């Protein structure tokens, strides 16, 4: 419940900020065809994987890499465990995207807890 409320708040903020107007491409003359069969749908999904992202994610800075390494070593007790749990304090791309592209007021709202109604 909290997550859906948070996502709704974020989407409203992003779409009301005017950001999509800056990033939007020209509308196509006709809509994209809808895949009619499973192989066509799978092909369309594979094509989406090759598409370039609308919001680029820049490579991590030296500071971000250093902080990630410190968190990882603290979590594993100084041991280097390759491919362990994935929760070892590495770099979180979703968090980086939020910090790069969301306005400060939406970041502050996202960090506040949303009370659960019973």
Question: Helices and strands: which structural class?
Answer: mainly alpha
Distance between the ends: 11 Å
From the structure provided, what is the oligomeric state, counting identical versus distinct chains? single chain
Give the DSSP E fraction (strand runs of 2 or more residues): under 5%
Describe, in short, the structure shown.
The protein is built from six helices and no strands. With 118 residues, it is mainly α.
How would you characterize this protein structure?
- This protein has helices at 2-16, 19-23, 38-50, 62-76, 93-101, 104-111.
- Helix content is 55%, strand content 0%.
- The protein contains six helices and no strands.
- With 118 residues, it is an all-alpha fold.
- The longest helix has 15 residues, at 2-16.
- Among the domains are: 1-17 and 103-118, no CATH class; 59-102, no CATH class.
- The model has no long low-confidence stretch (mean pLDDT 74).
- The radius of gyration is 20 Å and the shape is extended.
Features of the shown structure:
118 residues, mainly alpha
Write the topology of this structure.
Layout: H1 2-16, H2 19-23, H3 38-50, H4 62-76, H5 93-101, H6 104-111
């Amino acid at each position: 419940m909290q997550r859906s409320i948070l996502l709704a708040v974020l989407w409203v903020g992003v779409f009301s900020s005017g950001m999509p107007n800056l990033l939007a491409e020209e509308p196509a003359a006709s809509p994209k065809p809808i895949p009619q069969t499973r192989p066509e749908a799978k092909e369309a999904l594979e094509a989406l994987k090759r598409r370039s992202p609308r919001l680029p994610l820049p490579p991590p800075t030296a500071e971000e890499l250093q902080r990630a390494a410190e968190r990882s070593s603290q979590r594993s007790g100084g041991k280097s465990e390759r491919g362990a749990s994935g929760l070892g304090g590495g770099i979180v791309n979703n968090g980086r995207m939020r910090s790069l592209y969301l306005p400060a007021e939406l970041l502050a709202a996202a960090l506040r807890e949303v009370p659960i109604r019973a």
